[in-house]
Amino acid sequence: MKIGELARRTGVSRRLLRYYEEQGLLRPVRLPNGYREYAEPDVASVRHIRTMLAAGLPTTVIALLLPCVHDDGDGMVPTACPGMVSNLRKERERIAGTIERLQTSQRALDTMLDAVRPPA
């Protein structure tokens, strides 16, 4: 299928599909005319990529983990691969740190807002 068809079937823009290719997440066949030709498994791969992006994983980690997931009909199912658990734990710690920093920022803003609000 061409990139337009993959975009239609996945709801992901052509531009993002090209970006996924640049990041090594998708590897379409290049036809002699330069067009990209995607296969049916690429539809599931795009869904997996979107799921992992929604989980906060960067594309560098997704590239490592993408071969470790498959579809079971209801969605993405991870299988144990070398490094999968350690990569997921590392990313979870990174996200937890970000959440903590954002909560600190939120508390600081709340303090400032409390200071400038007129008394009720």
Automatic annotation (TrEMBL):
Q: Identify the SMART domains for this entry.
A: HTH_MERR
**UniProt KW Transport keyword:** no
| Organism (species) | Nonomuraea jabiensis
Domain of life of the organism in this record?
Bacteria
Q: Where is the HTH merR-type domain?
A: 1-68
| Listed InterPro entries | DNA-bd_dom_put_sf (IPR009061), MerR-type_HTH_dom (IPR000551), MerR_fam (IPR047057)
What this protein is called in its record is DNA-binding transcriptional MerR regulator
Q: Name one Pfam family in it.
A: MerR_1
